[in-house]
Amino acid sequence: MSDLAMGRAALILVAAGKGERAGGDLPKQYQFLAGRPLLTHTLAAFAQHPHIGPVVVVIDPTHRDLYDQAVAALGASDLALLPPVAGGRTRQESVMSGLGALVAAAPSRVLIHDAARPFADHALIDRVIHALDHGPAVIAALPVVDTLKRGQDGHIAGTVDRSGLWRAQTPQGFHFQAIIDAHRAAIGQDLTDDAAIMEAAGLAVSLVLGSEENVKVTTPEDIVRAERTLAAARPEVRLPDVRVASGFDVHTFGPGDHIMLCGVKVPHSHGLVGHSDADVGLHAITDGVLGTIAAGDIGQHFPPSDARWKGADSSQFLAHAASLVAEKGGVIAHVDLTIICERPKVGPHRAAMQARVAEILGLSLDRVAIKATTTEGMGFTGRSEGIAAQATVTARLPL
């Protein structure tokens, strides 16, 4: 039976952008929200739908490791995920790349969706798929209900008639051959979305009701709101298997003018010696996270003998450990870290460290505790020969 008769539709997720407006050290589609990358949440929304497949994700090839981590965090699913394909200079070129990857599969229908929209629900996806029974193209959209003003030089220049205006969302759905033909005809043009490409080809595009929850994560404020929404749905209180594990790490001082502590650059008279960036705080937390699922230690996953990790940002170690917990259906509930050193002073940097750890793990700030102490001049830390860190991590997993 064909995918059209079954109501199945291929899916292209557009995830090739840099997402710089969202802030943070990672592109927005790979930032951790509620314990998993944003892209993982978007994949999960479609993975649970019975009429989606195959799926191709369009990425920046330089982000392949981040993409692999996001897919790993999805865990077991029935999603028919094809190898990712490289995006282009524009969204239009990226979608064309995704369409080309689906030619061999010859789907009858295809949905095109922004990877930064993780809240598409089944009812919305159904509306888009079913509308393709009646025409070659459809988009999810919301009618404009706010009064619209045209501005000029900081003043209102007029009121815009909002009747008949809609806010376009994704997914946008198309008969496959129609959209790929329209894209080929539109090469060289600069059109804002796939519906506009179909319009340029002279084909009718239908509207179905979108969803207010189906927001696109674009700005730092969107990241915060998405985190709250996803965190509210987290199953922490429903997961009965509570695990508590510890992590410990030490690094000696060496030449340098700063150290990395919990992902924050801290000026200091010395650096820390290590194969990676020697972030003693993130290393201790990473071992604690791995300990909650008995997954060995940081050296097993990122051996110092491997040149790939020389000078590496330790945030990727912690993100990887968190993805392993997510693969098992678990969530990290709390992190408690104690940094042991005479110098530098941790207090002035504590808030930034707390925020960075929370960002990497997708936790709220009240689930990350960072403390500091000295050994009153005793031992190697007391002699200012290095820094130690001890972490306790709590995670919840299904039985």
Short recap of the structure:
The chain is of the alpha/beta class and about 400 residues long. It has 13 helices and 18 strands.
Helix content: 25-40%
Low-confidence stretches: 1-6
Please work out how many helical segments DSSP would assign.
13
Globular, elongated, flat, extended or rod-shaped: what is the shape? elongated
Largest sheet: 7 strands, mixed
CATH class of the largest domain: Alpha Beta
CATH topology of the largest domain: Spore Coat Polysaccharide Biosynthesis Protein SpsA, Chain A
Q: In angstroms, what is the radius of gyration?
A: 24 Å
User: In percent, how much strand structure appears in the residues?
Assistant: 25-35%
Instruction: Kindly report the name of the CATH homologous superfamily of the largest domain.
Output: Spore Coat Polysaccharide Biosynthesis Protein SpsA, Chain A
- Assign the CATH architecture of the largest domain: Alpha-Beta Complex
Total tally of structural domains: 2
Number of distinct beta strands: 18
Q: Structural class, please? A: alpha/beta
Strand line-up in the sheet with most strands: 5-4-1-6-10-7-11
Q: pLDDT average, as an integer?
A: 90
What is the first-to-last residue Cα distance? 39 Å
